[in-house]
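SEQUENCE WITH STRUCTURE:
===
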Amino acid sequence: MSSSNDPITLEIIQNSLQATADEMFAAMRKTAMSSIIYEVLDMGTGIMDAKGMLASSGAGIPAFIGVLDKAVRVFIDKFDQPGDIEPGDVFATNDPYYGGVTHLNDIVVAMPVFADGRIIAWTANIAHNSDVGGMAPGSLSGEATEIFQEGLRLPAIKIISKGEPIQPVMEIIKTNSRMPDVLEGDVWAAIASVRVGEKRLKELAAKYGTETFERAMSSFMDFGEKVSLSALADLPQGTFELSEEQDDGRIFNVKITIGPEEFTVDLRDNPDQSDNPVNTSRDGVMVCAQMIFKSLTDPYSPANGGSFRPINLLTREGSVFHAKEPAPIGFYYEIELRVYDIMWRCLAPHMPERLAAGHFASVCGTFIGGIHPDTGRQYTIIEPQLGGWGASRDGDGNSAVFCGFHGETYNCPAEINEARNGLYVDCLKLNMEPGGEGKFTGGRGIVMDYRVRADNGFLTAGYTRSRFPAWSLDGGNEGSSNYVEFRPKEGETQRFAFVSGLTTQRDDVIRVVTGNGAGLGDPKERDPDAVRRDVKNELITPERAQEVYGVKI
């Protein structure tokens, strides 16, 4: 079929790309073996053009969607000789120093799409895998001092050649995991996903013509850039700066300069990389900048490579935000959340109609594992947790929602956790601790109790915003802290922000407490009827209502 510039045809192709990315997401969700993937949806899918630029994003975690184009460009650069990339090939990486961007648990799988004898696109996905080896079950430990201790490294490799698995590679991947069958199943779910995408894109190119297909992707990226530039010109222009102390005493700094054609994020003035796994890669920081930029400019349309062309990111290699090999990077997500949050906080006072007060701003990743008392097999759960969001000028913040990093994810149902893993979920309720009061209040975090069913298990967790809770606006109250409590059957309760490999025994309880979002505005200005409603709904006690709001019930 001849090429076409018909805008309706190009729009149909673009919507077909979006539908394909969503179908890839569904295929992976329905075939994965880990509840972190098929229940929590800790994954993302997308479609890149032949050069590795994001053409269409699927569902999933926003911070994952922004990883895929960066990984694919590493595959393209590495396999640059004739015959290196053939129809039917599938590639993988999980290493942040080789295109993986995040940490070793997250495996990116990508596949080239061929038509008329050339690559016209790539399909790709990413998901968190429960165990990829390393010094600790779950492949995450705060005690790691180099990335070699964090698990098996896949440095942008080919795992399927011309449609056939490279068996030794598959065996290496499987053998390095404490949960080999689960890891193997999840990797094959990822392969199935990119193959579904490849099939659909080849059908599209055959239907409309290869040149028209490619033109559709290019034109939509140009449109994405046009929309971003138009919105950028409407933002407050100038340079905005913020310095913020972190839970561990480090000071993080950001400088954002907004001009009519460029959005510059300067993170060069920040601490050196750490010897423990609280670092991130430059590509990961770029994802944070993309997320903030998208929310400020065009939050409701699909993202593509053109949407982010105005971003200029400045980092310093060897810093916490641009780590050098072999720095450990396991808890990267908490550091990237700090970047995301300080950019948000830096701009919020200047863009009150766009940005709310601070939220609990932590993944609150909780790793619990051991030997299942019924099956005798290793289990490891990886749970991101729900928390409270900050109030805005439009109303109160949301309660029990995932952090800004996690987007379209869900908490794992208690029934699935209890059926698949060696624990009981005794309690899930809203956090009633003080914090987040204001003219508009922050949303509530949660309290969740896991009761362990077997001896000699483990707990690993890493929460930020434990010492410094969510920040408020316009005289509202700060939120409350994130923390985890270990409540042994025998002994004293211990409270942690970070803990690695803590031994658990039968009937010990692990209590997760996530923070309330911050308030906005003077609490004394809150509508008394809203205060009475909060008391009626048991979100606040009558005594606290009188103390903070001045409303006597």
Observations:
- The chain is about 30% helix and 20% strand.
